[in-house]
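If I may wish for something, please walk me through the protein I am sending here so I can picture the backbone:
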Amino acid sequence: MSKRLRILIAKPGLDGHDRGAKVVARALRDAGMEVIYTGLRQTPEMIVEAALQEDVDGVGLSILSGAHMTLVPRVIEGLRQAGLDRVKVFVGGIIPDEDVLALRALGVAGIFGPGANTHEIADFIHQQLTEG
């Protein structure tokens, strides 16, 4: 029997809009994953600590504030420093096309914009974490 995937969903920064994060969290849960939602206004350090404490397989960051090029690198670096290199990071929110390549170069496994299909998000995350 395979282990149930554990996914941390976090809202870094000052953005207070969490409907999308909650929709994705529910979709992942409905897809059989265990989901930990940290709530609003998390610092990168809080997210890394939660990932460490919860022993997650993946971290989903929901960012609508435009601060993704500041917050995502801090989370990824924090995960590396904590010895969590195996944890894959996924980003959702409003990400301009010109930032997608830079985020992927940092190691972001998947980027999902507004209107992304939740079944496709769940399938993508499952594939990334079980196949490779």
The CA atoms of residues 64 and 94 lie 5 Å apart. The chain has a mean pLDDT of 95.
